[in-house]
Backbone:
């Protein structure tokens, strides 16, 4: 289960040093302490500041206050702090903050009114009846996550109704008195605000604060997801006013002190429908045979000043969100699609990174500086692919000035990919599902987006630019945000090895684990039947990439120093990196005062950016899944060839060639009683010994496609 970072605000927190001292004191104590005892041990005259810090620590779940107003550390009191992960059937799991702790099962009775995504403190109760999973009860709710809930209103009489949440894991329908229904009728999609939280035998109560259409109306399905995840569709007026005041074109004074690169041939390469163009590239082959690669990134920090209304809103959003039918941008369109976007034929401000790269793919020298550029051509991935792979005569003629450059880019891309492979970077090749919609928002096609050479070119160039900037800022010893991907945890690695042993593989980790060990196995199974199962289980062992002020390394890329610099129009951490770059470019070094301020802000930036990224990913995935289900409804009763892509204790998921996945529930596998083996991810018939595993080809019939539940159900066809 994925751990969800807490979203943060820029509100000033108590002194971190004071927090650390207080926590150290409590950890060293042999029993919970009261405020007077803490003050004596810390040498404090006034307990007021200690009380303020304790209140913050208690709210975050880092300390626990007893009924006798004593404070202790949760783990020393045999308590667990974490996030509730609900289940549609009413029970839940605690996902502990401590990554080393296992998830804890919580029955509906022991939730004590806690709901999905609430932060809570849980007391262990021992083990469930099966004896396999720890069980617990909620003793305190630290923070409520569902103050507003999106759902469908259902009238239940003249005096009241209920809102059925779209998020089934909430586990409760919300009672709404007639006077608080805002005129909603059965079938209306609404936002309900909780006014009374659930108790043991009583549903939560609320009031409807918004009605935005009826279930089934065009666009309402996606709008429900937008509101469910709390995405910000509209920009506040103060933000739009500030954006409107920015000039629509580059002024003469904006060009001062910049490299003038307007005569340097360069292109953007993006998707067909992209409008927020962050990056342009240029390439020259030098007389010595080396490549001079230029990566030119929109200078968003020049327009979005620190602590401006635009900056505060960008921080709040964290990222642009690319839903199946719309984009919810981080910055107003006048910036994201206008003056900041590197539109062809227009003067634009950029931060340029020039890298000289030798035949082994190593950067032997680089330059970073502010520039003014003018992109020559707005290229698409598809057109570049057709030039390089098909030598399309019309496109080759239309873009004749860049055909040789594209070929050089392909050569450099292959050199850089080989360099990454040599150092052991991981290469998981899982195509992304795309959905085509008609004008009414109905899905007309679902297909897999394969990465072409054009995608690879931009990917490799951006990866190299991000590495170069990370190394540059690291050696200047300035605070900034790293993109980190930590190595798999010991327990996950042990589980993975137990699985891999069945195929004759083992990942050594006595002296630390290296990604090369993973990639070696991926290479060995490339053309073998077990490829998919090994890929899938290996990917599950990985941690989720995130942002951090510390250089914790990027396991997947096999580099120690990595950042996100290349997408400041759509990612807040990239904007922060640009801002730090500007500090050092303008002043060569930064003052101690500025450094201290940046050090205090980076943890907040990191946590907020990571949290908003996860929210965006989940919203994007849900809109695609929704449209996949809607698309499949037309094929009810039809039979498909598929591949088992996941196996669980309740059945197996089967993937179709277009990327659609559906569940074959174990209860429908009636030719035998099937047992789940969690060590090798198989379902085996108790009597027939017939076994299903990831990668097996099967024939399935589509029996259900529920848009409401976002669920596709298959059944195995006889003989499969």
Residues:
């Amino acid at each position: 289960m994925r751990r969800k970072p807490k979203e943060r605000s820029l509100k000033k927190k108590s002194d971190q040093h004071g927090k650390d001292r207080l926590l150290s004191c409590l950890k060293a104590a042999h029993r919970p302490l009261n405020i007077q005892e803490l003050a004596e041990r810390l040498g404090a005259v006034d307990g007021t500041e200690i009380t303020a810090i304790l209140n913050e620590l208690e709210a975050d779940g880092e300390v626990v206050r007893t009924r006798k107003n004593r404070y202790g550390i949760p783990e020393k009191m045999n308590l667990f702090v974490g996030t509730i992960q609900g289940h549609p059937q009413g029970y839940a799991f605690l996902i502990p903050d401590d990554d080393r702790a296992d998830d804890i099962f919580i029955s509906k009775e022991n939730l004590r009114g806690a709901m999905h995504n609430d932060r809570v403190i849980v007391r262990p109760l021992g083990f469930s009846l099966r004896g396999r999973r720890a069980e617990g009860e909620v003793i305190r709710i630290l923070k409520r996550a569902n103050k507003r809930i999106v759902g469908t209103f259902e009238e239940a009489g003249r005096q009241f109704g209920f809102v059925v949440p779209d998020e089934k894991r909430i586990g409760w329908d919300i009672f709404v008195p007639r006077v608080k229904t805002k005129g909603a009728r059965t079938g209306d999609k609404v936002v309900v605000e909780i006014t009374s939280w659930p108790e043991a035998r009583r549903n939560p109560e609320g009031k409807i604060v918004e009605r935005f259409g009826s279930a089934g109306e065009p666009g309402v399905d996606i709008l429900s997801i937008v509101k469910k995840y709390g995405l910000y569709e509209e920009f506040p007026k103060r933000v739009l006013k500030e954006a409107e005041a920015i000039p629509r074109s580059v002024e003469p004074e904006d060009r001062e002190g910049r490299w003038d690169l307007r005569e340097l041939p360069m292109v953007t390469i993006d998707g067909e429908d992209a409008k927020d163009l962050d990056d342009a590239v240029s390439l020259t082959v030098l007389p010595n045979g080396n490549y001079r690669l230029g990566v030119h990134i929109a200078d968003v920090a020049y327009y979005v000043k620190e602590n401006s209304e635009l900056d505060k809103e960008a921080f709040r959003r964290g990222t642009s969100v690319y839903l199946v039918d719309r984009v919810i941008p981080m910055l107003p369109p006048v910036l994201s699609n206008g003056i900041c976007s590197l539109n062809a034929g227009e003067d634009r401000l950029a931060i340029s990174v020039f890298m000289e790269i030798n035949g082994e793919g190593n950067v032997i020298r680089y330059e970073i500086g502010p520039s003014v550029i003018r992109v020559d051509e707005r290229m698409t991935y598809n057109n570049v692919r057709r030039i390089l792979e098909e030598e399309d005569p019309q496109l080759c003629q239309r873009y004749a000035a860049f055909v040789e450059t594209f070929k050089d880019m392909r050569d450099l891309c292959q050199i850089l990919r080989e360099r990454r492979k040599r150092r052991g970077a991981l290469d998981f090749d899982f195509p992304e599902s795309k959905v085509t919609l008609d004008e009414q928002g109905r899905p007309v096609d679902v297909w897999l987006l394969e990465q072409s050479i054009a995608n690879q070119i931009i990917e490799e160039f951006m990866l190299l630019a991000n590495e170069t900037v990370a190394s540059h800022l690291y050696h200047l010893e300035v605070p900034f945000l790293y993109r980190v991907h930590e190595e798999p945890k010991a327990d996950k690695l042990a589980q993975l090895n137990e699985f891999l042993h069945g195929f004759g593989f083992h990942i050594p980790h006595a002296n630390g684990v290296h990604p090369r060990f993973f990639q070696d196995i991926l290479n060995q199974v490339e053309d073998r039947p077990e490829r998919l199962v090994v890929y899938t289980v290996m990917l599950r062992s990985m941690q989720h990439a995130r942002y951090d002020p510390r250089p914790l390394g990027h396991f997947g890329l096999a580099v120690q120093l990595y950042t996100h610099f290349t997408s400041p129009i759509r990612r807040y951490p990239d904007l922060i990196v640009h801002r730090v770059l500007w500090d050092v470019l303008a002043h060569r070094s930064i003052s101690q005062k500025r450094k201290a301020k940046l050090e205090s802000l980076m943890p907040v930036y990191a946590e907020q950016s990571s949290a908003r990224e996860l929210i965006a990913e989940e919203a994007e995935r849900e809109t695609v899944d929704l449209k996949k289900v809607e698309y499949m409804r037309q094929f009810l009763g039809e039979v498909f060839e598929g591949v088992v892509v996941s196996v669980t204790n309740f059945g197996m998921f089967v993937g179709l060639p277009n990327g659609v996945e559906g569940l074959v529930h174990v209860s429908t596998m009636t030719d035998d009683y099937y047992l789940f083996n969690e060590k090798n991810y198989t379902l085996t018939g108790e009597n027939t010994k017939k076994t299903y595993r990831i990668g097996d080809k099967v024939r399935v019939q589509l029996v259900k496609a529920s848009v409401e539940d976002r669920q596709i159900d298959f059944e195995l066809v006889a003989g499969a």
